[in-house]
Amino acid sequence: MNRANLNTDLKNSAEFLKRAISNEKRIAVISHLDADGITSASIMFNLLKGLGANFQLRLIKQAEKKIIKTISEINADLFIFLDMGSGQKEILSQYIEKDILILDHHHPEGNATGKTIEINIDNYGFNGSTESSASTLCYLFSKFAGSDFGEIQALVGALGDQQEMVGLNKEVLDIAIKKNIITIHKDLNLFGRQTKPVFQALCYSDLDLPKTTWEVQQIFQDIIDIDEVKDKTYAELPIEIHKKMISKIIEYKLSCGKNNFDNFLTDFYFFNEAIDGSEMKSLREFAVVLNSCGRQKETAIGILFAENPKKYYNQVSTIYKIYKQNLAKLINWFDSKESNAFIENKGVLTIIKPNNVLKPDVVGVVSSIYFKLKNSEIIIGAAYDEELELLKISCRSKKQKINNTLKTAAKFVGGSGGGHDLAGGAYIAQDKFEDFCKVFEEEIKKEAKP
């Protein structure tokens, strides 16, 4: 790892940005609309605002040709791409003739040329899938530009991308702890511990428990008063009940022959200033709330909320509530017989075929949820994007790396794809889905061979 070179390049690019601002250059910031992209945008928004820059900010779903062509028409002298760009440098240079700055953590392709400055964490020996999100990189960049903002935002972005607190993420975590911004607590790996009724949260967990609240309640009926706790969140229950429940879950899993306790307990990161019981108390839930803003096309409020959570919490909470209701309807559809015709299981690979129910803005989220619920090894979800006139592919993998597989399969059918080791996506022509899946399946079989 070459941290010294990273620091040098961050410092030089930060100075480049400040010179552009002092010369009254117009700046366009383009970022992705997921949690990492939104938090990255909020850090840059805060920095540019503080430096008195003339800028505009836009969140997009993907750096596809059609979108980049539109972006190129923005009246700007400097284009800053966050959480994207490293895999699309050829497209960017084709359509944008002005200066370009890229801050990204996805696998880079090719070299930056001409007026493009690229800082990608992979180029310095760090793993962009695990050790640094785009928001972490933006935070480090902003510090070199004179900012002291963004620890919470960087950590939320990293957790939103399913990263752990290692590498550069750990550096930011240590700063946040030193500033007393967050508290860490190891506990049962339970999403919704702050916001969902305890048995409902357990149903949707990855703990190998039954998927109905009644069945889950039966597991604990001899150690706790079900009626007394059923409407409370896990966080509201006393530590002694936590201990009893954890012991009972272990006992239940062993009685069912389920001996896998990987990630049974996990570290939770709590925002000290947030109200107990709010969605922004746990940083992982904070990330999901930001994702909901992106998926519901409420990107402006998402950026404002990421920058100032307390001020915009009530507005975002309403957006998140609607988002959860829509997701619940989709998950119920997947449990119905109607969905059977669109789901194909091919060994380790599960394929969710294009249909009229699954939309492109949520195909990634739904694929992830279905992936966990069905304990799939690898899943592909697909939905037609009318704006791009392309089929959006979302892919998740439990162990096998899929980044290069996605690139190969997408390229074979004339599309583009990639991402991280265990999560990624692609855009392809609508009529190429079967060919894409065939090549993808062949490639994962090749890579699985010893």
From TrEMBL:
Domain of life (superkingdom) = Archaea
The protein's matches in SUPFAM superfamilies, at most eight in alphabetical order, are given as: DHH phosphoesterases (SSF64182)
Q: Which InterPro entries match?
A: DDH_dom, DHH_sf, DHHA1_dom, SSDNA_exonuclease_RecJ
Pfam families, per database record: DHH, DHHA1
DDH domain boundaries: 26-143
Under Gene3D superfamilies, the record lists: 3.10.310.30, 3.90.1640.30
Q: Which residues form the DHHA1 domain?
A: 359-446
Q: What molecular function does GO assign, one term? A: exonuclease activity
Descriptive protein name: Uncharacterized protein
